[in-house]
Design brief:
Layout lengths: L1 H6 L5 E2 H9 L7 H16 L12 E4 L2 E4 L7 H17 L3 H13 L12 H27 L3 H14 L4 H13 L3 H19 L5 H11 L49 H12 L14 E6 L6 H14 L6 E6 L12 H11 L11 H12 L4 E8 L2 H5 L9 E6 L10 E4 L5 H12 L9 H9 L4 H12 L6 H9 L1 H7 L1 E2 L2 E2 H9 L4 H10 L9 H8 L3 H13 L4 E4 L2 E3 L2 H14 L2 H26 L11 H4 L17 H10 L1 H13 L3 H17 L3 H14 L6 H17 L3 H18 L2 H17 L3 H18 L2 H17 L4 H18 L2 H17 L3 H18 L2 H17 L3 H17 L3 H17 L3 H18 L2 H17 L3 H18 L2 H17 L3 H18 L2 H17 L3 H18 L2 H18 L2 H18 L2 H17 L3 H17 L32
Parallel strand pairs: 4-7, 4-8, 5-6, 6-7
Antiparallel strand pairs: 1-3, 2-3, 9-10, 11-12
Length: about 1200
């Protein structure tokens, strides 16, 4: 109401108008009374001292309406309209100074949107009118500022307004004019294109006459657009007014030397922000300087990275923000210009002093005197000095201003570390997104090609180096018939890439030439020769081997090239080229030296890596022996038996692992290089030496490539033994990757050679590999036979480590054959002893894990966890990631039974992640099955079922039939819990058939329990009992208490449903005792719940409630949500039987909510005992599944 009265100040407003404004139409019946209350309240607020019932002097009644009386100057809207009127009049009379002052003051009255906190149809219309008026006044005020020559300081404000009002063309026109007058013609034209594109995209129209005409005049550089200077007494940017002291001496007026900004500038937001923060700190850019010295920022980076463009953009941003507005000086120091020396700083100082108004005859002759006068002329001035392409610190030292109000911005290809107090901004190549944006902007292609995968290819092939990216875009623009894909294809060829990145006289290669020509001969040799290194990076050690120098000299050369930004250091102590610089260096190498010299250098590097890999493997595996250094057939006369020393590689496993990990990519690249040169001896030795590490870290793909190169190198009659060893190594890698059939073929081929040559140790290795492959294929009898043959041969040759490996595998094989679980445990113990004797910590870790699995099977879950923790510690110590995954999975199995269901799931998930990372498909299948079962146990059936189906898919791909049997059994039990009885039966029957064909009795027992539950759900109690007794007998025969407990619980259920609750209670008690003995909280709580249910059927209600509440507590504690809902159902039945209907109803609702939460629907309360105590048939909705792993 107050807002409406203020809009009609000193004029009567009818009651009906106020009611419509406040409540709208139709108004409520109480509107008139409420309006009177509002008036009274307003009068009390506006006139707090007015006596009661006395007439109001401020809000009165006149001519049938309320009048709000406000004196002159009391209403901001009236003041605004008055100031706007005076400003418009002054503008029409050409008095920009007066117009600007009036309009600035008018706009200052706004603190936000008019009528910002009230709303109605009347007020909304008035708000829109005032907003439009305010915007129009803003346009007029900016026009006045432009007439006063304040174009520099208007750019930032206008950019914001154009973004805020994208369809208001007047703001765009004003921005274009401000940019043009600031010397930024390119940016002005870019604004036009952005506006034009936006209008077309949004509205399908072109800009209006004003913008189009201004665009035409900017293109033509119309003199009429230039600022003509302020009228007498007016104030422009940086000039004086009203007799004030000038900001700079007369001679400096107009010293604005910055080059034109460019519209193609993209990215660099972080670096620009870094520079802005530096400048905006107290004491810079005209702020109070305090004790701080001159601000110096050095922009450094490799050739073509965009240092000059960055400096230009940063400088124009500062000017647009009215920083350093007094003086802007620019000098190209030509530090890397071909065929001419860098500019003498004395000459630069002479030019600067002339620009600063010093007559030529008053400029001193000496550089020191010139520098002193230069600092004096810039003292206390807001000056920006840009020194582009500096050669070194000495060239710029005399060009530093002396005042903290100045900014010195230097660009250089070198590291200028000798400038005290300078802040360094290092420019790197573009991000992928920035590079693609620049290509799109320069190439000016259709929307179909912008941001396309082809554009990303061009960006990457250009190394994301700004000059190369821009030239690639211009190449496209000058070749309209080319597609982005065609240019990318042309850039794919290394030999032609630099030639393609050329447009007219501009070329990436020429840019690099400027840096290369200033290198010393030693630097040029190092720069070109290092490009012969086949790997992605090098160290001082490997560079010394390649260059034929000492380590210290090599490091000095590397660091000097790093200072020249011709090399990069992505990790401390490691150096690499930018992709384009590597190509350039190779081109220069072809021009500079002979092929024989480069080949000799690379050969020495290959020797160095060969020695390093062998030394590292001996540190990892002291029992490993190198082969001969290289005879004529293998070495091709290239390698001698002497290898260079490998510096900085300590004789311990940790140092070896670190070196091998850091050099992994280089080792493979060097192997390829050796193979290409047919240095067969070293190719084979590299493959053999690196094999152990690559296998340890599960780098299967790299390991396979290296070994295949070694296999090709080991040809010829005298290379058969090495070929056989390589075949055996390849077979083991295939097995780790789940390619068991291929692994068997490789081992068979190796075995044939070993037997022919009488190599009994090699034959043992091949039999061992064949046993591993057969195990992976589920052929356990064959696997056992092969392992026994390998064991005999290892014993004959005295290889205790080989014996330990075989015994450990036999422990696993016997696990899956006819339930030889005790024999399996004993073999793991023997393997552990042997591995301790020979000092192989990795084999020890695997045997700890094997013993942990045995303890899990026999129900010693705490000991299972302990052994897997020991295994995990050793696996982490030796860097065996696959082993870590095995140990994590074992910890998950132990925790599952110990009632830590959530943590068990986390362990299994971690194991799954690692197995996938190391490409172990067999391990992936096992972990997937465990993840599925862990989700099954906690009631997350949707996730559990998905993971089990994923397990079956992996098993089908890898032939892992044992895990397939386990997964089918788990999936069957899950289906029973979800009341999909027929589907569950199908999965369980498949599991039973498969496990029997494999001789794997553990999943066989689980499948038997599940099928017994199927019979229970179908009401076939005798069939249920028969199946459960089979499962019990089988579990007892193999000594597995877990499935034994499940079988007893199932028998207990069958007895309860068969009207034998006393026997049912006995079976559940036996099951509970077994669960308690083994620490298996999951099955123990299930059995305790069964006791409670049986006691309810027997009428022993107090005992029943005690057991049911104990089961509920445990199930809630361990996170068994399905079990919790079952126990709540049984408590509801107990409450019903004992005449507590309210409690029964409450428990039933909780149970139903619990089942619904985990996705189990349609459950029936089959536990409610009738008054006649007649047993309920299982066919009446029995949803019990007590089966498990």
């Amino acid at each position: 109401m107050l807002a409406v009265l203020l809009l009609h100040v000193n004029r009567p407003v009818q009651r009906e108008s106020l009611i419509e404004a406040v409540w709208g139409d139709p108004a409520p019946a109480y509107a008139v009374n409420q309006l009177q209350k509002y008036v009274s309240a307003l009068r009390r607020i506006l006139e707090p001292g007015r006596a009661a019932r006395s007439p109001s002097e401020v809000l009165g009644w006149s001519e049938g309406g309320y009048v709000l009386r406000v004196g002159p100057g009391g209403l901001d809207l009236a003041a605004f309209e008055r100031l706007v009127g005076r400003g418009r009049k002054a503008l029409a009379q050409g008095d920009a100074q007066q117009a600007g002052a009036e309009l600035h003051e008018a706009l200052s009255l706004f603190s936000g949107p008019a009528l910002g906190n009230v709303s109605s149809a009347v007020l909304d219309a008035e708000r829109d009118r005032l907003a439009e008026l305010r915007t129009a006044v803003l346009e007029e005020r900016i026009q006045a500022d432009l007439d006063l020559g304040r174009h520099g300081r208007l750019v930032a404000e206008l950019r914001r307004l154009v973004a805020e009002f994208p369809l208001r063309e007047r703001f765009a026109a004003l921005l274009m004019l401000a940019l043009y007058r600031a010397g930024r013609q390119g940016d002005a034209l870019n604004v036009y294109h952005q506006v034009r594109r936006g209008l077309r995209d949004d509205l399908g129209v072109d800009p209006g006459t004003e913008v189009e005409e201004l665009h035409r005049r900017i293109l033509a550089a119309s003199p009429s657009l230039s600022w003509q200077g302020p009228p007498p007494g007016a104030e422009a940017d940086g000039s004086a007014a009203d007799g004030q002291e000038p900001a700079v001496p007369d001679g400096t007026r107009g010293v604005h030397q910055l080059p034109m900004d460019i519209s193609e500038f993209v990215g660099r937001e972080q670096e620009l922000r870094e520079l802005r923060e530096l400048v905006e700190a107290p004491g810079t850019g005209g702020a109070e300087a305090g004790e701080r010295g001159v601000l110096v920022a050095v922009v450094e980076g490799m050739a073509g990275v965009g240092k000059t463009r960055f400096a230009v953009r940063a400088a124009h941003e500062f000017i647009a923000q009215d920083r350093f507005a007094d003086v802007q000086l620019w000098a190209d120091l030509k530090g890397f210009t071909p065929e001419r020396a860098p500019v003498d700083p004395a000459n630069v100082l002479e030019d600067f002093l002339r620009l600063l108004g010093v007559p030529g005859d008053r400029i001193p002759g000496g550089v020191e005197a010139r520098a002193a006068l230069y600092r004096d002329r810039l003292a206390r001035r807001r000056a920006l000095v840009v020194l582009d392409d500096a050669a070194d610190e000495e060239q710029v030292r005399h060009l530093l201003p002396g005042s903290a109000s100045c900014l010195l911005l230097i660009t250089s290809r070198r590291v200028l570390s000798g400038l005290d107090g300078a802040h360094t901004i290092r420019l790197d190549v573009f991000s992928p997104q920035e590079a693609v944006e620049l290509i799109d902007r320069v190439a000016d292609r259709t929307h179909d090609e912008t941001g396309s995968p082809a554009a990303m290819r061009v960006a990457e092939l250009s190394g994301r180096l700004p000059i190369a990216v821009a030239l690639a875009g211009r190449r496209l623009r000058t070749r309209p018939a080319w597609s982005m894909d065609e240019l990318a294809d042309r850039l794919e060829t290394d030999e032609k890439r630099l030639a393609q990145l050329t447009v007219g006289r501009r070329a990436v290669e020429a840019t690099f030439d400027l840096s290369y020509q200033w290198l010393s001969p030693a630097q040029q040799r190092a720069f070109t020769l290092l490009a012969a290194h086949p790997g992605p990076d090098c160290t001082a050690d490997s560079a010394a081997a390649l260059l034929g120098t000492g380590r210290g000299e090599a490091e000095d050369l590397l660091e000097s090239l790093l200072d020249e930004h011709l090399l990069q250091q992505h990790v401390a102590g490691r150096y690499r080229y930018h992709d384009l610089l590597r190509l350039y260096a190779r081109d220069r190498a072809a021009d500079a030296g002979s092929l024989e010299q480069r080949t000799a250098a690379v050969r020495q590097l290959v020797r160095w890596y060969c020695a390093g890999a062998e030394t590292a493997r001996l540190s990892l595996e002291p029992w490993w022996h190198r082969g001969p250094a290289g005879d004529g057939a293998l070495g091709n006369g290239v390698l001698s038996e002497e290898h260079p020393e490998v510096p900085h590689l300590a004789d311990d496993a940790d140092s070896a692992l670190k070196w091998l990990e850091e050099e992994r990519a280089n080792l493979l690249a060097v192997s390829r290089e050796a193979a290409q040169h047919e240095w067969r001896g070293c190719t084979w030795r590299l493959a053999t030496a690196a094999h152990a590490f690559l296998g340890l870290r599960s780098y299967g793909t790299d390991c396979m490539e290296g070994l295949r190169l070694g296999l090709t190198a080991a040809r010829g009659a005298d290379g058969r033994a090495r070929r056989a060893r390589t075949l055996a190594d390849i077979g083991m890698v295939c097995d780790s990757l789940g390619r068991h059939e291929e692994a068997a073929r490789r081992h068979h081929a190796a075995l044939a050679v070993f037997e022919e040559t009488g190599d009994r140790h090699g034959a043992a290795t091949a039999h061992y590999g064949l046993g591993c492959a057969a195990f992976g294929l589920g052929r356990y009898a064959e696997s056992a036979e092969r392992h026994h043959r390998a064991l005999a041969l290892f014993e004959e040759t005295g290889d205790r480590r080989g014996q330990a490996l075989v015994l450990g595998n036999l422990g696993l094989v016997n696990w899956f054959i006819h339930g030889r679980y005790r024999e399996s445990e004993e073999q793991h113990r023997r393997a552990l002893t042997l591995s301790e004797e020979c000092g192989d910590r990795r084999v020890q870790a695997y045997e700890f894990a094997g013993l942990g699995l045995a303890h899990w099977f026999f129900g010693n879950y705490a000991e299972c966890a302990r052994q897997h923790r020991r295994a995990l510690a050793l696996f982490e110590e030796t860097g065996d990631r696959r082993g870590q995954a095995i140990a994590l999975n074992g910890l998950g199995l132990a925790d599952w039974h110990l009632g830590r269901l959530v943590r068990a799931g986390e362990y299994h998930q971690q194991a799954l992640t690692v197995f996938r990372e190391v490409c172990d498909r067999r391990g992936e299948a096992v972990a997937l099955q465990c993840v599925g079962y862990a989700n099954w146990a906690t009631g997350r059936y949707d996730v559990g079922e998905k993971r089990l189906h994923e397990t079956l898919a992996v098993c089908a791909q890898t032939g892992n039939r044992s895990t397939e049997a386990w997964s089918l059994a788990s999936l069957g039990h899950m289906c029973l819990r979800l009341q999909r009885n027929d589907e569950g039966q199908e999965h369980l029957e498949k599991a039973l058939s498969l496990s029997r064909s494999l001789g794997d009795r553990h999943p066989e027992a689980s499948a038997l329990v599940g099928l017994a539950l199927v019979s229970l759900n179908q009401g076939q109690l005798s069939s249920c009992e028969e199946g459960a007794r089979q499962a019990l007998a089988l579990s007892q025969s193999i000594g597995n208490p877990h499935n034994e407990t499940w079988a007893m619980i199932t028998l207990g259920l069958a007895c309860c449903f068969g009207d034998r609750p006393e026997q049912g209670a006995d079976w559940h008690r036996r099951a509970a005792e077994t669960g308690q003995r083994t620490g298996d909280l999951f099955t123990e709580s299930m059995a305790v719940n069964g006791i409670g249910y049986a006691c309810t059927r027997l009428g022993r209600y107090e005992e029943a409630e005690r057991h049911l509440r104990a089961a509920l507590t445990t199930r809630q504690h361990i996170g068994d949500r399905h079990g919790e809902a079952e126990t709540l159902t049984d408590l509801a039945a107990l409450m019903h039987a004992t005449g507590r209907p309210d409690a029964a109803s409450a428990y039933r609702e909780l149970a139903q909510a619990g089942f619904a939460e985990i996705g189990v629907t349609g459950t029936q309360d089959h536990r409610v005992v009738s008054s006649s105590s007649a047993p309920r048939r299982a066919s009446q909705g029995c949803r019990w599944d007590r089966g498990g792993m």
